[in-house]
Amino acid sequence: MFRVMSRFLSNATNRIDTKGRVSVPAAFRSVLAQRNVQELYCFQDFVFPAISVGGSDLLERFERQIAAEDPFSPEANEMSLLIHGGGVFMKLDAEGRLMVTDFIRDFTGISDEVTFVGRADHFQLWQPQAFAAVQAQAREERKLAGKRS
């Protein structure tokens, strides 16, 4: 069980520098350090136009789900295509920056800024306007769901 402080929470938008790097927010770097994450597992999110980022524990969680399935089943094959075929390992540089590669740009539409979004046990990289739109839609749907109950 993780302590409350070692969760990825909130969101922040940072500019990509001329060399294609973006500073990961200090709060997120702190969580990575607390969890002793040396190598980042990054994958194309299953639902949103975002890159999900976590430690090897995130990849291992998906691999346990695959292992629980018949290895020849459509579910196991689809999951492997998503988490292995849609994933890469990356590292932060000494200053806590992440290289914004074509893998990230092509899937998200990110160009000059990145919105980092906490998702408890991992965080996501979003194109800022896409995040704002999806978050507003989710807020509206929650509001409507509250009125129906």
How would you concisely characterize the structure shown here?
This protein is an alpha+beta fold and 149 residues long. It has helices spanning 26-34, 56-67, 74-83, 102-108, 128-148; strands at 11-15, 21-23, 40-44, 51-54, 87-90, 97-99, 113-118, 123-126.
3D structure, described in words:
The protein is an alpha+beta fold and about 150 residues long. It has one domain: Chemotaxis protein chec. It has five helices and eight strands, in the order E-E-H-E-E-H-H-E-E-H-E-E-H. The strands form two sheets. The chain has a six-stranded antiparallel beta sheet. The chain has a two-stranded antiparallel sheet with strand order 2-6. Strand 3 and strand 4 form a beta hairpin. Helix 2 runs antiparallel to helix 3. It is globular, with a radius of gyration of 16 Å.
Give a quick account of the main beta sheet: strands, pairing sense, barrel closure: 6 strands, antiparallel
In terms of DSSP E residues, the strand content is 15-25%
Q: Structural class, please?
A: alpha+beta
| Strand neighbour order, sheet with most strands | 1-7-8-4-3-5
CATH first level: which class?
Answer: Alpha Beta
CA-based shape: globular
CATH architecture: 3-Layer(aba) Sandwich
Whole-Å distance between the termini?
32 Å
> What's the average pLDDT?
94
Q: Which secondary structure elements does this structure contain, and how are they paired or packed?
A:
Layout: E1 11-15, E2 21-23, H1 26-34, E3 40-44, E4 51-54, H2 56-67, H3 74-83, E5 87-90, E6 97-99, H4 102-108, E7 113-118, E8 123-126, H5 128-148
Antiparallel strand pairs: 1-7, 2-6, 3-4, 3-5, 4-8, 7-8
Helix pairs in contact: 2-3
